[in-house]
Design brief:
The chain is α/β, with parallel strands linked by helices and 446 residues long. It contains 13 helices and 27 strands. Bound molecules: shikimate-3-phosphate. The site of shikimate-3-phosphate (S3P) has 12 residues, from α1 and α6.
Amino acid sequence: MSETTGKGSWSPKHRHPLVGELKVPGDKSVSHRALIFGALAEGTTSIRGLSDGEDVGSTRRCLEQLGAHIEDCGELVKTHAGEHWSELRVHGTGLEGLKASKRTLDCGNSGTTIRLLMGVLSGHPFASKLTGDASLRRRPMKRVAEPLRVMGAKIELADGDHAPVKLEGGRLQGIAYESPVASAQLKSAVLLAGLRAQGETSVLEPAPSRDHTERMLRHFGVKVGAEGSRVWIHGGARMKAAPVRVPGDVSSAAFWLVAACIVPDSRLKISGVCTNPTRSGVLDALVRMGAKLDIHQAEVGPGEEPVADIIAAHSQLVATEVTPQEFPKLVDEAPILAVAATQARGTTRIRGAAELRVKESDRMEGTVKMLAAFGAEARIEGDDLIIPGPQALKGGTVDPNADHRIAMAGAVASLIAEGKCKVLDPGCAQISYPAFFPTLNALLQG
Ligand code: S3P
C-alpha cells in the first residue's frame, strides 16, 4: 500500500514486483499540435486520446481565449486520476481566423504552448501577451523570438529573453533558418509562422528533433519537404481538418518500462505507445542496455503516428552511451534513463545533454540531485551526464523542484531503494501524467 498526499509527499509503503497491463496518457507533444492545428484548420477536427495533463489544458484554454471553439464529446473515460471525455471536436477558424485576446494568455508550465503559439500569433495581425508560471518565465524565449522577428513579427521579451512575451503579428516573409539547437518547439514555431509567410520557410537543425509537426501538417494537407535535418514549407497553404488519434506518450511509458526492468520479478505491458523514431530513443537506449522489451508494432491508419504494445520485464542491465546526435530523441527521458543507469553494469554517458538545463527545471542538476537523494553518484562533465553503475540505492527524500519528470523518476528509483523514501510534491506529475501516482499505488497493492 502507498499513499499520495496532494501537495505533501508520496512514499512507497511496500516494495512489490510490478505486474499488469497499463495505458499511458495521450502523447503530450501530439496533443498540443492536434489542438493547435485543429484550431487553424478549415472544418471540424475530431481528436481521440488527448492527453489529460495540465500542459495540454493550458493549450486548450489559450486557444479558446483566441476564439477557437472546442467541444468535449464521446464517452466519459475513467482513469486512476478521474474522468475525461474520449473525444474532442475542434471547430477550426482557418489560418487567419483567430481573434485577439484582451486577457494575457497563460501558458502555465508549458514550453510547447508558449513557443508554438508565438509562431502561430506571429502571422495574426493583432497584439498578444503570453506568460506562464515561475518555471516557464525562467526559460529561454529569445531562441524563438529571433527567427520570428526576422520574419516580420514584433516581439518584446522580459530581460531580452523571457516571458511575459509581447507580440504583434503581421505580414511575414519566409526565411531559411539555421537553428543553433535541435528543438522541435523552435522548429515548429518557425514552421507555423511559415504557413502565413510569403515564399518558402526552412529550418536546418544540428540534429533532427521530433517530427510531430511535419507529420501532422501533412495529415492536414500541407506539403512539407524534408531532407536530413532540414525541413521546409511554402506559405499560403491551406489546412484541412482531419481526424487525429493521439498515441500513448512514450515519455510517460518510459517510467513503467524502467520500473519493470529494475524491480525484480516485474512484468508490465503498456499498450498503444507512440514509437515515432525521432522520439523513441529511450527504447533504443534501453534495448542496448539489455532491457527485456518486447515491442509489437500495431497497425495504424494513414497519416497516423507509429504505435506499439510494449512488454517490459526485469532485466540485467549494462551501461550505454547516448551520443549528442541521439540525445534529442530522448531529451525528456534523461532523468528516468539515469535511474536505469544506476542499476547497469558499467558507466553510462548521456552526451550532449545541455538542453536539460533549460527544461521545466535544470534537469542536469535535478537528475544528479535526485540520484544523490538515494545515495547514488552521478556527475556532470561539460554537457555530459555520467552515471556509474551498478549502485545500491538508499532511502531518501526527493524534492523535484516542481518538475513532473524528476518527481516520477524519483518515485521509480524509490521502488528499489533500501529504507524510507519520500517524493515531495507528487502533485506536480499533473503536468503530464495525472494518473501516475494513483496507478503506481494500485500496482504496489498487487
Ligand atoms: C517538445 C519538444 C522538446 C521536449 C518538450 C516537448 C515538443 O522540447 O523537451 O517536452 O512538443 O515539441 P525542445 O523542443 O525545447 O527540445
